[in-house]
């Protein structure tokens, strides 16, 4: 449930400062500023080229702080807080946040015993481990960052702050509007619904909030690394990596080291060989008791190599653990590739109170906000609708405008994808797809995808996705169905089946059977995917672990379970000869779409599928896809729908062999008496999916009406 909005305090804010903060030399101000800038949450934090500012809460009172570099003198802090007596405690927290007291001489001496680290320490002698203002805040942000990019994580955090965080009484610092919510504000909140994210992640945040509210010492420094990690990993949704990361930053444990981190492994890569997790931990024994500083040096080195790596196909992000993906490690973990990008001063064009709600709409791509405002991206010169599916922009590059005219007056041009200055995209897309269908129907041979997409004014990938969302089939499948109708009609007139096949536009009889039945040639299917590149990612959703895999043609596997390793083995068994590539950054958007569909299966699955299987399985799976959301059908009804009324058991086996959970909705098939029967991924998940679709009882009539058409 959304938190009740508290009224801003009327207590006057007392300016405090400037307060000098001494730092041990040398001090890498730019390194720690850039780290914080890459993760700055709009409304909560603001990072410019010369300062870091944020809202703070202490003892139930709210204020702001601003920290800037003072050259050899260290740092200078400017405070605005209603209680002058709290200034010493605030300055102490700032010191931990900026790691001002690190013993650089001892750290450098110990780490320089490793040849690789010696070179990195020499290049960055003043590198620090960024701390956190509040341990609970850092823990929540780490959970929000699971399975998403740094940018997406900051937008989610901004939406959470705008929804549940108390507002400031006045905007003492431009761009700062809310403080981070307290544990009691989130312990009972329906975060998943408010932020439109997986239920498991929302439950993990509630669990952390409840634990922090019950035990104020949960994030207290001085617990000892082993004890702190044990307490944190006992909580839902927090694994060893997140626990070590929280210990590193919030608890100031200098020997914390996130195990198996891909950035660390990648930074230690020699030639084509990357060390194993065991080899990393063994090598790290020589870094004690300063492993956290070694991690920061390696992350910085990995970020420096990111531009060269972006053009390479080897972008393996490692095998994510349950609840912690490679993407999550960038969200509030290792410095991401974005960190190396320059940070400029933030300039707001609207009041922060308005921006908070806009950030929330932007984070969830809320279609209800379309028409209320547009957002522009300074680096691209483009403005978009709030619901635009384009990749999320870095917050410091976003500008909000009330209308398209205002955005264009500021020098921005409309996005060619969401077309904010034109009619609603649904109407435009429907008209474009109708024209494409007419082209397919009247063409003697199937028009190539590029030509169809060009006629519709879309990119080939976007056209393919929109076509399938509107028609329920791909352009090739639609054309195949039309040609099959021509074959049936031609058989009434042609002398032979072969003549009818060629007259319908097939260039060979084998292509008619292969294309209509298997989705690939029988030879390719029989080879176990040989010569096929399959990208995949492991993550977590409200149903447990999830694996998503796709070829260049479309999604080929959506697997659910409790053990991520078992899901990966299942994929390897299904495609033993394929090239499996995991952890590619640009695969993240597709995975997020799939996870979103699993969370709300009643909607349309708007991604292309690459479906293998036998001819019979293809017929069964196509019938399953015609079962309307919110209804169920029996195995016998499916058998009758595909023209094989005696093949009930074969239908059940085909359902069990389906590798595309939810996208091919075998969860909608029940026994004749309405019992749920079996489900490849567990009856509990089947029951959950049907409940999400609002199924109260089987409804075979709806199926018969849809599959018989």
Automatic annotation (TrEMBL):
Q: Name one Pfam family in it.
A: DNA_binding_1
Region annotation Disordered: residue ranges?
A: 307-338
The cofactors required by this protein are:
Zn(2+)
Q: Does the keyword GTP-binding apply?
A: no
Q: Where exactly are the transmembrane stretches of this chain?
A: none
- Which InterPro entries does this entry report, sorted A to Z? Ada-like_dom_sf (IPR035451), Ada_DNA_repair_Zn-bd (IPR004026), AlkA_N (IPR010316), AlkA_N_sf (IPR037046), DNA_glycosylase (IPR011257), HhH-GPD_domain (IPR003265), HhH_base_excis_C (IPR023170), Homeodomain-like_sf (IPR009057)
UniProt domain HTH araC/xylS-type: residue ranges: 449-528
Task: Please report the name of this protein according to its UniProt entry.
Answer: methylated-DNA--[protein]-cysteine S-methyltransferase
| Provenance organism | Methylobacterium soli
The organism's taxonomy opens as: Bacteria, Pseudomonadati, Pseudomonadota, Alphaproteobacteria, Hyphomicrobiales
């Amino acid at each position: 449930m959304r938190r009740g909005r508290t009224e801003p305090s009327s207590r006057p804010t007392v300016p405090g400062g400037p307060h000098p903060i001494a730092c041990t030399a040398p001090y890498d101000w730019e390194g720690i500023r850039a780290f914080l800038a890459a993760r700055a949450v709009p409304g909560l934090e603001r990072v410019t080229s010369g300062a870091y500012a944020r809202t703070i809460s202490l003892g139930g009172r709210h204020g702001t702080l601003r920290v800037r570099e003072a050259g050899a003198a260290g740092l200078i802090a400017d405070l605005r807080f209603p209680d002058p007596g709290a200034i010493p405690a605030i300055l102490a927290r700032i010191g931990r946040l900026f790691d001002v007291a690190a013993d650089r001489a001892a750290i450098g001496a110990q780490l320089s015993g490793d040849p690789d680290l010696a070179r990195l320490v020499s290049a960055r002698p003043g590198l620090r481990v960024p701390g956190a203002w509040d341990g609970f805040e850092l823990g929540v942000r780490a959970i929000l960052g699971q399975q998403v990019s740094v940018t997406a994580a900051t937008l989610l955090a901004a939406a959470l702050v705008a929804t549940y965080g108390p507002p400031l009484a006045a905007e003492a610092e431009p761009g700062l509007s809310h403080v981070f919510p307290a544990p009691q504000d989130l312990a009972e909140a329906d975060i998943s619904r408010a932020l439109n994210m997986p239920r498991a992640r929302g439950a993990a945040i509630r669990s952390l909030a409840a634990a922090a509210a019950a035990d104020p010492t949960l994030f207290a420094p001085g617990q000892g690394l082993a004890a702190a990690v044990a307490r944190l990993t006992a909580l839902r949704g927090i694994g060893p990596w997140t626990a070590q990361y929280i210990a590193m930053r919030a608890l100031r444990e200098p020997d914390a080291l996130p195990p198996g981190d891909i950035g660390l492994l990648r930074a230690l890569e020699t030639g084509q060989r990357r060390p194993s997790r065991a080899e990393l931990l063994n090598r790290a024994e020589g870094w004690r008791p300063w492993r956290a500083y070694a991690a920061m040096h390696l992350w910085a080195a990995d970020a420096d190599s990111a531009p060269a790596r972006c053009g390479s196909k080897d972008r393996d992000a490692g095998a994510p653990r349950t609840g912690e993906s490679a993407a999550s490690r960038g969200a509030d973990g290792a410095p991401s590739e974005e960190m190396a990008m320059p940070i400029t001063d933030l300039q707001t064009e609207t009041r922060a109170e308005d921006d908070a709600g806009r950030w929330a709409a932007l984070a969830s791509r809320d279609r209800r906000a379309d028409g209320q405002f547009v957002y522009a991206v300074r680096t691209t010169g483009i403005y978009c609708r709030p619901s635009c599916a384009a990749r999320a922009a870095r917050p410091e590059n976003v500008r909000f405008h009330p209308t398209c005219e205002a955005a264009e007056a500021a020098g921005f041009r409309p996005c060619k994808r969401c077309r904010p200055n034109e009619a609603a995209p649904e109407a435009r897309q429907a008209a474009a797809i109708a024209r494409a269908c007419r082209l397919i129907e009247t063409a003697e041979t199937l028009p190539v995808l590029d030509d169809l997409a060009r006629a519709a004014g879309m990119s080939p990938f976007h056209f393919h996705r929109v076509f399938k969302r509107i028609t329920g089939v791909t352009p090739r499948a639609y054309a195949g169905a039309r040609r099959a109708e021509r074959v049936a009609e031609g058989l009434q007139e042609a002398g032979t089946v072969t003549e009818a096949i060629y007259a319908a536009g097939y260039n060979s009889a084998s292509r008619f059977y292969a294309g209509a039945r298997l989705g690939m040639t029988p030879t390719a299917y029989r080879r176990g995917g040989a010569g096929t590149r399959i990208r995949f990612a492991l993550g977590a959703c409200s149903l447990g672990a999830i694996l998503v895999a796709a070829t260049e043609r479309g999604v080929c596997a959506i697997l659910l379970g409790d053990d991520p390793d078992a899901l990966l083995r299942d994929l390897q068994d299904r495609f033993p000869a394929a090239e499996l590539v995991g952890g590619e950054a640009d695969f993240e958007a597709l995975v997020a779409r799939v996870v979103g569909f699993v969370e709300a299966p009643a909607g349309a699955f708007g991604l292309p599928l690459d479906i293998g299987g036998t001819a019979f399985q293809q017929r069964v799976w196509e019938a399953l896809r015609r079962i309307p959301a919110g209804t169920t059908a029996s195995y016998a009804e499916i058998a009758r729908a595909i023209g094989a009324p005696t093949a009930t058991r074969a239908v059940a086996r085909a359902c069990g062999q389906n590798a595309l959970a939810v996208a091919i909705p075998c969860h909608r098939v029940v026994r004749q008496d309405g019992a749920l029967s079996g489900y490849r991924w567990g009856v509990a998940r089947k029951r959950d999916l049907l409940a999400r679709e609002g199924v109260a009882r089987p409804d075979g009539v709806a199926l018969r009406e849809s599959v018989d058409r």
